[in-house]
Amino acid sequence: MTTVVRPHTIEELKAINEVPIVIANSQGLITYINDCFERVLEWSQDDVIGELITMILPSSFRDSHNLAFSRFQASEKANVLNHPLELMTITKSQQEIMTEHYIIAEKIEDDWLFGAMLTPLN
Description:
By secondary structure, this protein is an alpha+beta fold. The chain has a single domain (10-120), classed as PAS domain (Beta-Lactamase), CATH 3.30.450.20. The chain is built from 4 helices and 5 strands. The protein has a 5-stranded antiparallel sheet. The longest helix is centred in the middle third of the chain and has 17 residues, at 59-75. The two termini are 18 Å apart. The mean pLDDT is 91. It holds the Pfam family PAS_9.
């Protein structure tokens, strides 16, 4: 049985190269993706850096995401952090693939950063 190492900080998340990684700021704008994200999901840095994180989410999930994101902004509490979630992710070719999202949040100075491991399940 393989033990999955779960990151606790944004820096730990950035050190992961085996699965797609995405980081967004408190406005929901993508600030970082790793090389594996580009290979697996086909999005390049030019495609996604500075774009809303919702561009990689199915349209049916965007409202739920935006509501949870707004709730976190107001309360700094979330039910989706630090445990695996099976959700669809959109590739550049607009395919939906099932991925395990492991989402962390870290406050750095006065801004929240949100990072996710998006491990493909198929």
